[in-house]
Amino acid sequence: MFRVLFVCTGNSCRSPMAEGILRLMIGQSTGPDAGTPADPGVGVSSGKTPAYPGVSVSSAGTHALGGEVASEESVSICKQENIDISSHRARQLTREILAETDLVLALEEHHKQAVERLVTEDGPPVYTLAEFASESGAGVPDPIGGGVVAYRKAYGQIRKLTEKALPRLQKMAAKSERTGE
Q: Which residues cross the membrane (predicted)?
């Protein structure tokens, strides 16, 4: 299983949206049957076989209040895109989570730096989502306090970057599956 972790600040806006977007793109459930933080990415909606069954997706925050729900705006925008993140609960980023991760995609540079301070030498590679997608830019700004327009913009940026990152992610997952890493 190739395990992808999205990281933002509170794990209530950007990283849950990114998790939902990637789950949708790889054919995994985005609803209540999508698994738990301890066992992410196991559910499949509508009885369909996922396009990438060897990939799991989860998220965490550098300053998360564990157990908090996703922001109302994030839930609403994702729902409009047929992504259900209503059952999401925030998790604080820990070394234990990183030890069970194969790839970390941070939403901004300061998230990447926070992860790098926690990750061990043999830990997962850490990139910003923009960097992994081979895009320039500072990342996806925090929409908190910006209203629905800021959340819609963040969603659009995350979706665009995730679409661009998907081929590279697929290659890494396939290599991991072949080598058994």
A: none
